[in-house]
Design brief:
- The protein is an all-alpha fold.
- The chain is about 30% helix and about 0% strand.
- The chain has one domain.
- The chain is flat.
């Protein structure tokens, strides 16, 4: 997953500050980033 934890903290989007619904889409064959594990970490 994201191994650079220092850099990861700079890139976190604070979804708890959003005032509207959030739609998450992820793909099982995503070769660019670990989209499924990243979207699973979001809980509202």
């Amino acid at each position: 997953m994201l191994k650079d934890t220092v850099d990861k903290k700079k890139k976190v989007i604070k979804v708890e500050n959003c005032n509207s619904p959030i739609l998450l889409l992820s793909g099982t064959n995503d070769e660019i980033c670990p989209s499924i594990p990243m979207s699973e970490k979001i809980s509202i």
